[in-house]
Every structure is written in structure tokens, then in C-alpha cells.
Amino acid sequence: MAARLLSPLGQVYAGATARRVARPPKASLSIPVICVGNLNVGGTGKTPTVIWLIEALAALHHRPFVVTRGHGGSETRPLRVDAAIHSADRVGDEALLLSAFADVVVAPDRAAGGQLSEASGATVVVMDDGFQNPDLKKDLSLIVVDAETGFGNGRCLPAGPLREPLSAGLPRAQAVLAIGHADAQRSFQSGWSDKIGVPIVSGQLEPLNTGMDWSTTRALAFAGIG
Q1: What number of other Cβ atoms are within 10 A of residue 218's Cβ?
Q2: DSSP secondary structure string for all residues of 154-222
Q3: Fewer Cβ in 10 A, N or C end of the chain?
Q4: Per-residue model confidence as pLDDT tens digits over 99-140
Q5: How far is Cα 147 from Cα 72, in angstroms, rounded to an integer?
């Protein structure tokens, strides 16, 4: 009932997103640009997907640069992240995490971030989020979704969890990555596969084994992401 009542506001939100994504790109690079984004608001597993992707690209002898918004940071200009001198207050915590795996540029202006990456020696740019940001021309877009929750009720904010309707967002993507355990994958396939006109691939999150022995470390850890 609440979703139906809020549906007009969701249509307004969808319209605003449609006008934004319709803008022409401000920049087009001479190297590939891969976007890892989503249609849902909140965490769907984009950052772990970016980490997997940049490691796979590095294994293919690429030099990937990650371009990210730098959520939580104060930096307003394109900046190449240096974990030795930059704090989370300046570049955001996700940028610092990603910098352990590849070169990272934080940039509210994604076009400028891509241009700085290319000028700094990147052979491929991976965008962490930014599917609804048209400023940098994308060569491949991957939509990440939680297989257990899927696309919710299929409505846009505030009536549902979506940033834009499936009918508007999916045609701009080349694939959907559904992340979750086997039962969730089966549920997602049965509930959504007939509504998705692009290939669906599946994945699972696994702990990252860094080879470090934590058995004698006194620590208290808390994560509240997404």
C-alpha cells in the first residue's frame, strides 16, 4: 500500500535520473572504460567485484586504474590516492581499500578522473559506481545485484529500492552479476531472468585470504557498509 502511494514520487525520481543519464559524455578515453554499477540503492557487492576485476585485469598484464567518487571524503578535485599520506576523511574509506589492489583516482567529476588515469599510465579504467553518471563514456557496464533481494518491488525511490526503472537501466548494461549463495541464485533466476534482456552471471563473496596470521592479534572489528 505504501509503495503504491509513493509511486508518483518514484516516477519523479526516475524522471530526474533519466534526464541526467541522457546528457552526452564530457569525455571519451582512448583506453577501455568498464563500469561496475547497480540499479539498487545501497550495497550490492560492487567494491568486491571491482577488486576481483582489477586483479583479473592485472593478471592479463593490464595496468588498471579505479575511478571512484570518494564517498565520505572531502576532496573535490581529481586526486591520485596515496594511502601513505591521504586519510579517509579526504578520499573516503573505499578508495583507501581499493588502493591496496590498484591505482585509484578519486574524482567527483568522473570525466576528469578518467583523463587523469589515462595520463598517469592506465591501460584500462574501472569505475566503482557511476552507472547513472554519463560524464565518462563507458565501453562496458556491469550491473551488480544481491541475488537474495533482487530488484525488490521494481519501483524507484522512495516507493522502492531502485535508482531507475529496469526498463531504462538494463538496456545500457552488457551483463548482470547476481551475488549470493546457490539457493538465492536459483530464486533470482526464477524471479527475474524473464525480465532481464542481458546475460546473467553469478558470483559469491568469499573471505580474502591475505596469508596473515591473526591468531594472536588482540582486535575488535566492526563493519557497517552499505
Answers
A1: 5
A2: S-BTTTSSBSS-HHHHGGG-SEEEEES-HHHHHHHHHHHGGG--S-EEEE-------S---TT------
A3: N
A4: 999 999 999 999 999 999 999 999 999 999 999 999 999 999
A5: 27
